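Tutorial handout. Part one gives the primary structure; part two gives the three-dimensional structure as tokens.
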Amino acid sequence: MENTFIPYEKALSILEEHQGDFPIESRILEECIGSYLAEDLIADRDFPPFDRVTMDGIAIAYATFESGTRAFTIADTAAAGNPQKTLTDTANCIEVMTGAIMPKGVDTVIRYEDLTIEGNRATINLDALNYKQNVHFKGIDMAKGTVIVGRGKQLSSAEINIAASIGKAALQVRQLPKVVIFSTGDELVPVDQTPELHQIRRSNIYGIQATLKECGIKADLQHLADDKAQMFKAISTALRIYDLLVFTGGVSKGKFDYLPDVLEALEVKKHFHKIQQRPGKPFWFGSNAHGKKIFALPGNPVSSFVCVYMYLKFWLQKSLGIASEALLVKLKNDVEFKPDLVYFLEAKLESHHDGSLVAEAIKGNGSGDFANLVKTDGFLILPQNKTQFFANEVYPFVSYRTKW
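Part two.
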């Protein structure tokens, strides 16, 4: 094997060394959904900030109930949003509403469903109560000063809710890169055009664009013909406009694979070109002196798809400070793979009754068989230096389905 091929793990370490520098900006809360947090969200007070009533009913002193009292005079009413009330006579009770501050002098709440109320007398229709029942105690969810959401998190409605609850009218978030995705090759025609026998439609770029969109990143689409001068001009312009350039095709050993030479002529430094893997060996990554990053993916659809999920998403996660953990699954069927390469094998996930995730390997007809992708949910990562992989062994899995 050529010494220019690097191991999968080495490729990841190089990508991590060359993370993107995404500036931080302040954005109003209403415009933050899908953004990546660049600050910690810290509890500005205890959650909840007081002992909170969780049921409509009455609040009593538990000791009075234990002594045999079942009927209580309603001395006052505590509503949500009102200052804290106080019960001075434990023979009485206070009528309480959900969300109210638990009054002083009481410790237990009985819901209306377990009461009979006539006039200002409330009778408890139960023989036993739990001490301090139906009370949400101060600080039990989160203590003041606790980090509720760490930086790097992509903001969903749940995190937006938290931000509002701690008084964040604006948030520090990461600016996302300006991205362009290039298809390359004279054999490719627009998606709305009927191809001749020797042609195919441009499809890879739409899959990559959709993947980036799932990450909250918009990307423009362009096409490059197999013309070295035209490629030089178009890429030169793109390097001035965009932060991240993604190419599909043009990086292998073909006579018209001009892309590596053009990038070198534009003073883009190559960090690696080939990886010890299948599919997707001729994957190229580099950057220029201005911090622009270039991902040049193989043209075969499955190879391109693999590299997007194994490397481009990895780089984005590292650049955004996202802590990612591998999904581990059991292999359903035996697999044999003799080449000394990391094998990214398409597989379909099953959820079993014992709570385990099991991956059924479904081998397609090579890196051009993109139709096989619709039958599967992601890729098993089968390690190098091993040829036999057996059912019930556990391996990492990278999903391209949101359900997983």
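Part three, for discussion. Residues 301-319 form the longest helix (19 residues). The chain has seven helices and 30 strands.
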